Amino acid sequence: MKNIFYITILIFIISSCKKDGAVTNPSSVDQTYTPTPYFIQYPFYWSYYPVPIPTNNPLTVEGIALGRKLFYDPILSQNNTMSCATCHNISFGFTDNGKQFSNGLHGEIGKRNAMPIFNLGWYEKYGEINHRFFWDGGVPDIESQVFGPITNPIEMNENLFNVVSKLKSNPEYPSLFKKAFGKDTITSQLLAFAIAQFERTIISYGSKYDKGILSNFANFTQEEKDGMSIYTDIYKGDCWHCHTISSHFFTDFGFHNNGIQQTFSDSGLARITRDPADMGKFKTPSLRNLVFTAPYMHDGRFKTLEEVVEFYNSQAYLGANKDPFITSDKHEAGLNLSDYEKKSLVTFLKTLSDSSFINNPQFSKQ
Ligand code: HEC
Ligand code: HEC
Q1: Residue 323 near residue 258 (C-beta atoms within 8 A)
Q2: pLDDT of residue 241
Q3: Above 70 in pLDDT, residue 110?
């Protein structure tokens, strides 16, 4: 990796933090509050796409450490048995252990596949303003996302009042919150701020593909190169219109009906917007780290990448709201890829997976 130069973004300066930082009432901030600013790192060739950090929740080493501890702590659930990491396991690209659906605290089964957690900050810049997170875009920013799973009866089933009182009576948390936010109190807002800070640091850019960018893909096999051509060829796979390749995120940050036939009452984006034109539209997932995140799609209906490619090749459902890039004239009869073309496309998709990411000690349980 020695030939990668990282750019460093100055997130904030300490003096302004005291004035405008995460703390809602600056007058009550302890004057000895000296958080350490955290400089987020990503490759220089991503610098065209700067990641936003909210001014009211700047990244600090102390805030991130607290968020990481909370992410892995079952104290956030009703019976202290389930943490965020129960369903977002780093070894599976922060998804739920290969499961199609997650189980709630008492074994209840959800109806969506747990999403991976990486490169989330960019959705806040490029995603649709009110629709950035969850398969149906029901959440606008990373901070507000935190409350859903804690209070959802089929997830952690806890109420925020109880969580806060458990944290307050815990031997460690009061001083950790004080170090992170400079206040002698714990609130559900600060809990969400800390977890959001940790989530913003979870960035993945160490795949074979990323190394290929720097070497004109000299590290790719012929089959991987062929697969990349299928991916970008508008008369072949034509995948890049939604899973954008030029921005390195492999998503356009938007919502589309990719031809997945709805099997039960999950209307996708329309559940949130109430607009019939949004029926069956789901968030375009990044295609990074697919090797670790099976099964695939919002309802985890496909177990393998071969099944996904065959779906786009011959089974995309031409129903209402179908996206023009799925059923344009050129794809009316499916993609018609040969066996070798399908195989090489899958081989290319696998180059987007980053084993240094799932083994990164900065993101795992302390
Ligand atoms: C019981 C399993 C479960 C638990 C526990 C859980 N999640 Fe999730 N998470 C999911 C599922 C399922 C989705 C997809 C939800 C949907 O689209 O309706 C999801 C989605 C997300 C997303 C959206 C990602 C994106 O790209 O839009 C984030 C972020 C997230 N979870 C973070 C967390 C955090 C933080 C916690 C702990 C406070 C947590 N989750 C606890 C199952 C879980
Ligand atoms: C019209 C936009 C669009 C095009 C074109 C498109 N996709 Fe998708 N893709 C999506 C959307 C939206 C989803 C999520 C759908 C869902 O969950 O129901 C998705 C899901 C996926 C997934 C599942 C990822 C996961 O984490 O579950 C894979 C893999 C995938 N697409 C690969 C491809 C490939 C390969 C191509 C080209 C053959 C392609 N896509 C073309 C929009 C598109």
Answers
A1: yes
A2: 92
A3: yes
Cα–Cα nearest to 56, from 193, 161, 186? 193
Which pLDDT does position 32 carry in this prediction? Answer: 78
In this structure, the strands spanning 41-43 and 6-8 are antiparallel
DSSP letter (8 states) at residue 41? E
**CATH match for 208-356 among 3.40.1080.20, 3.40.50.150, 1.10.760.10, 3.10.20.600:** 1.10.760.10
List, chain by chain if needed, residues with CB within 6 Å of any ligand 1 atom.
Answer: 71, 76, 82, 84, 86-88, 102, 104, 110, 112, 114-115, 117, 120, 133-136, 145-146, 149-150, 155-156, 195, 199
Residues in contact with ligand 2 (CB, 6 Å cut-off): 237-239, 241-243, 256, 258, 260, 282, 284-285, 287, 290, 293, 296-298, 308-309, 312, 323, 325-326, 345
Segment 93-122 shows an average pLDDT of 94
Ligand having the closest approach to the CA of 301: 2
- The pLDDT value given to residue 4: 42
Question: Domain limits of the chain?
Answer: 6-203, 208-356
